[in-house]
Design brief:
By secondary structure, the chain is α/β, with parallel strands linked by helices. The protein has 2 domains: 107 residues, Lyase, Ornithine Decarboxylase, Chain A, domain 1 (Beta Barrel); 222 residues, Alanine racemase (TIM Barrel, Alpha-Beta Barrel), CATH 3.20.20.10. The chain is built from 9 helices and 17 strands. The strands form 2 sheets. Strands 1, 10, 11, 12, 13, 14, 15, 16 and 17 form a 9-stranded mixed sheet that branches. Strands 2-9-8-7-6-5-4-3 form an 8-stranded parallel sheet. A hairpin with a 4-residue loop joins strand 13 and strand 14. Helix 4 crosses helix 5. It is elongated.
């Protein structure tokens, strides 16, 4: 199949435009270089070591993962510097985490004494020290210690024999949907200041923070310029999607699509395709069909997409292939076994999505 037209790929298929992705990578990498801040892109949407290596080649210092399973995949692919931006809780997961240490320099987030003590015991059992960052709640109100408790918890982490206090991290996720640019910047600055103030307070207490990590695709243009931040976690922006563009107001090009085949035209205003909820998600934003006809709405069932047109149209016809811009890449890549990477409309490489299903 290599070298064939993308329209020859059997459907449904997850298709990545390499030229578009590379422009997004260059744009992000250039932003971070100009700001003098590190880049540790999140791989929860990417899930593909081959793409993660492209990011390292572009200047990323390491990667961010959501789960131990994702970190295992990246470590097996030779990636050394890995942040798990999550709490790893439970004996089975913690054992896997510390047994990664001979293969990768893993950092993990923590926000409780109970978890810190369990991580320390496990690290001591394998004769290693585990780097730990404190997750600070900077306004999203998900996980994290309150800013007022950061120094005390840093002391707890630093006192554990199996741990090395490495710094702080936070996620200003509550700000990403703010449409007004000046209001969004104000909210991001206010949120991240809570994190950098925690880092400064830790340093004043004799616990310097080598890592001050924050920033996603929806905020990186702001967070990368803020004093005290050492690294940015934005990763999904290399793909971009409807959600990033319409909800987070990020003007990246969309590199990721789902290729589908028209399987039925029951009426001149209805188009049925072979890609449904099992192929592309609509939880955060509906995928967008790239067709010339005037689309009124799209609906997904398990195996079908239903496109309703505002006015009758003969096109597209049964058998035609059409692309859907992915609604939300985080919850779409996980549905596929491979990415069909194309350049100038021709298939260049097929990458296995090795992080698929790594939920633990």
């Amino acid at each position: 199949m290599i070298g064939c037209s993308k329209l020859e790929i059997d459907t449904p298929a997850l298709v990545l435009d390499l030229g578009v992705m590379e422009r997004n990578i260059d744009r992000m990498a250039s932003t971070f270089r100009a700001a003098g801040v590190g880049w540790r892109p999140h791989t929860k949407a990417i899930k593909t070591p081959a793409i993660a290596h492209k990011l390292l080649q572009a200047g990323a210092l390491g990667v961010t993962c959501a789960k131990v399973g994702e970190a295992e995949v990246m470590a097996a692919a030779g990636i050394r510097d890995i942040l798990i931006a999550n709490q790893v809780v439970g004996a089975a997961k913690i054992a896997r985490l510390v047994n990664l240490l001979p293969h990768a320099d893993v950092v993990v987030a923590a926000d409780s004494r109970q978890n810190a003590e369990a991580l320390s015991r496990a690290a001591c059992e394998v004769g290693r020290r585990l780097r730990v960052v404190i997750e600070v709640d900077v306004g999203m109100h998900r996980a994290g210690v309150p800013p007022s408790g950061a120094v005390d918890f840093a002391r707890v982490v630093a006192s554990q024999p199996g741990l090395r206090f490495a710094g702080v991290m936070g996620w200003e996720g509550q700000t990403v949907g703010i449409a007004d640019r000046s209001e969004k910047e104000r909210a991001v600055v206010e949120s991240v200041r809570l994190l950098t103030d925690c880092a400064a307070a830790c340093a004043a207490a004799g616990l310097p923070c080598e890592i001050v990590s924050c920033g996603g695709t929806g905020t990186y243009a702001i967070t990368s310029r803020l004093p005290g931040v050492t690294e940015i976690q934005a990763g999904g922006g290399i793909f971009a999607d409807v959600y990033y563009r319409e909800v987070m107001h990020v003007d990246h090009e969309c590199a990721l699509t789902v290729l589908a085949t028209v399987t039925s035209r029951p009426t001149p205003t209805r188009v049925i395709c072979d890609a449904g909820k099992k192929t592309m998600s609509s939880d955060a934003a509906a995928p967008r069909p790239l067709i010339s006809a005037d689309v009124e709405s799209i609906g997904l069932s398990a195996e079908h997409a239903r496109i309703s047109l505002r006015t009758p149209s003969e096109a597209p016809e049964i058998g035609d292939k059409i692309e859907f811009v992915v609604g939300y890449s985080d919850t779409t890549t996980m549905l596929h076994d491979e990415i069909y990477a194309v350049r100038n409309g021709r298939l260049e490489v097929i990458w296995p999505i090795l992080g698929r299903g790594k939920l633990r």
